[in-house]
Amino acid sequence: MRVIIIRYSEIHLKGNNRDFFESALISNIKTVLKEYQYDFARSNARYIIRNFDEEKLNEITDKVKNVFGVHSLSVAEEVDSVYDEIVAAALKYSPNFGSFKVSTNRADKRFPMQSMKVSAEIGGEILEKKPALTVDLFNPDNVIYIDIRENGKTFVYSQTIKAVNGMPVGTGGKGIVMLSGGIDSPVAAYMMAKRGMSLRAVHFHSFPFTSLQAKQKVLDLAKIVKKYTLRMTVDVVSFTEIQTAIHEKCPEEYMITIMRRFMMRIAERLARINGAGAVITGESLGQVASQTLESITSTNSVAGIPVFRPLIGFDKDEIIEISQKIGAFETSILPYEDCCTIFLPKRPVTKPRLSAVEKVESALDVENLVNNALNNIETIVIE
Amino acid sequence: MIHYFDNCATTKVDESIMQIIINYATSEYFNPSARSSFSLQIANKLNAAKEIIAQNLGASADEILFTSGGTESDNIAILGSLRAKRGNIVVSSIEHSAVFNTVGELSNRGYEIRYANVTNDGHIDIDDFVSKVDEQTLLACFMHVSNETGAINDIKLINSLVKEKNSKSITFSDGVQAVGKIPVNLHYLGVDLYSFSGHKIHASKGTGGLYVKKGIKVSPIVFGGGQEKGIRSGTEYVGGIIALAQAVKLACDNIKQNSLNYTRYKQTIRDKLINIDNWQENCTDDVSPAIMSLAFADIKGEVLLHMLENYDIIIGTGSACSSKNKQSRLSKSIKLDGRYSEGIIRISFSKYNSLEEVELLADKLANSVTELRKIMLK
Predict the structure, then answer these.
(1) Is B83 within 8 Å of chain A by CB?
(2) What is the pTM of this model?
């Protein structure tokens, strides 16, 4: 019978918490497979999927390999631990040309042959049937694995599909990610989800200064991110009133700094409302004026909870590489303006002093503006 | 109710036109190339449609080719008319993307592309255009009516000057914003190739045509069953084509009355903007009555568009077909002053607009500009 073997990554290190991590991982795997019929079993540091529709095999492996916490997958033949059946399966999984070797693991010591002998014998059987093959024990093109389990069953497989690793989403707390529509923020979300964080997103929208297409783009990105975060809700905050108030009452060069402080305040409040413990941004040190140490200091100072910036030490090229890998890049580069570009000052302050920022900002009724924004949120659950 | 002033982008399909399409989709759905008598009747109706279009555009029926719309017509005209592997193509810098980017593709294939300037109000600079034509010019592309400013080019003059310099070069004019909006007589204008589109004149999207003057050879760019004299294979969109012919006739019959209305609409807008400073009409002379291109200093056209959207008023910014590219060629080509360059909007009328809704548009436009400037300029 054709089965899928799922191996998990570092969660096996987690001593007493192992059950917590494992149940999160299993639940996440079941979430991505909810539209399929299959049997799921736990088996000694791995999971086995049986009785699935073979036509959906590629879909299923594609989905499971993107679940954080999964280390690798193999599509295997599960047979009774009977020599002839193992040989038949090994033949099926062996290549037709190139070099190979057989690697055997015998967990079931009742099996009458030792593992070295199994490898040698079965290797011989394969060579006999497929004379174009050669054996190479040190650097083979293909390895046929034979895993003889204690329960009287044996797995035979040849390919291992690398998965995303990381920690199961849901085991690393909850965070609010600021999703702008650019390249960086979906990558930041991906990075935190990789460490097991559940995420909810906030987006700042400035109609009529930004278009509905710009908002749609963010929702499209949220949908891409959801492939990894498994669940995704976006709070769309109308930011127009705050931006026009800043524009009206504050010096132009402080526009971006103060805007970002408002965003941070709103994100923090949303975190508290939704039981989240951190805010995530896509900032990368020095990338733009608002991402210098001084600018980050003035944004950070309004946050009472941790702010995670997983891209802080990344070059743009490195961020783009991940963006492409997770399938967000093409959407991220669609040319719709985001709210940051509307009142773009000609010379933004690059090294704002916190005391100066606070003084400039005192012209605004901060609490009232934040409350108004929080009262005008459109919450969109990404399906 | 939606107040729709973006009729250069597309138009609402006329109810009577829609009935034609439905009829040919559900009752007379026979393939005109098949052998039954029903099919023969359909083939005859397609010929009659050509006859109608030809009559309204001053051409002969056998000079009309049906296509899927302006973009396809432009592609056939440009890619299908080249008769040499080397040479140059002269094109105005304000052409629609369907022409501009097709010519750009020819540049990749090794042809030399010469871009001619436009004047500050969006007309083709005729002296500059003609000066770029020489013995090696294979094709000259000059649009009839600018989809962005509404400027009407004197294509009869351009055509004759081009032919004077090089009688062998092919002349092509994009007439998508002209047909049904201003009088068009192709034999009088003299161009070799001329494209038009259905959905700009209340017919359906996916319909259009190309005029190919008798004696001009055009090669196909898609191949198949040999429909449309082999130049445009593919089973004809029968209902769409017959509807297109009716739409052309309907639009051409009403050009005079519509133009009078549109001229009045434009004046209404000017009057209502009288107390607004720092705006300009990008083209006022030799301009299509159906198009009004405006530029406002210190604000973005797109923001104005979104503000008017709040009142169910839909306008355009430049060309919808190129709005995915960030910077408009328009503001560069017509050398708009920096303060105005992002503040372009396009108002384009159809027969469905009324004076009342033009007044509403003008009022809301004036208010929005004032409001926005209050925000943007403190």
Answers:
(1) no
(2) 0.81
